[in-house]
Amino acid sequence: MHIAIIGNGISGVTAARFIRKLSDHKITIISAETEYFFSRTALMYIYMGHMRFKDTQPYEPWFWEKNRIDLVKDYVNNIDFNAKKLEFQSGSALSYDKLILATGSDSNKFGWPGQDLDGVHGLYSYQDLEAMERCSKGLKRAVIVGGGLIGIEMAEMFHSRNIPVTFLVRENSYWSNVLPKEESNIINKHIKENHIDLRLETELKEILPDANGKVRAVITNKGEEIACGFVGLTAGVHPNISFLKNTTLETHRGILVDNFLKTNIKDVYAIGDCAQIRTPKPGRRPVEAIWYTGRMMGETVAYNICGHPTEYDPGIWFNSAKFFDIEYQVYGYVPAEMPDEMETIYWAHPDGRKSIRLNFDKKEKHILGFNLMGVRYRHEVCEKWLREKTSIETVLQNLGMANFDPEFYEEYESEVIDIYNKKTNSNIALKRKRGLKGIFSFLKSNG
Amino acid sequence: MNNSNLSIAHSESDLNGKQKIGLALVGIGLLALLIAWAGAGASAPLAFLLVAFFGFAIGGLLFAHASYQDKIPGIKNNGVYHKSISARGIIAWILAILITGFYICLYWFPAYIEGLIRMHDPLSQVLRNKPADQWFTYGTFYTVAVLIMGIKFIYKYRHNTYQIIRTISVMCFQLLLAYLLPAFLATMNQPEAYFTYFWPLDSYALRPEWFGWNDPASVGMIGYIIIISGILLPFVVTPILTYLYGKRWYCSWVCGCGGLAETAGDPFRQLSDKSLTAWKIERWMIYAVLVAITLLTILLWVNHQTHNELLGSITEPYKKTYGFLIASMFSGVIGVGFYPIMGSRVWCRFGCPMAALLGLQQKFFSRFRITANGGQCISCGNCSTYCEMGIDVRAYAQRGQDIVRASCVGCGICAAVCPRGVLRLENAADDVNNRTKDIRTMHISKEGISIPM
Question: B136, CA 20 to 30 Å: which among A6, B238, B276, B405?
Answer without folding.
Answer: B238
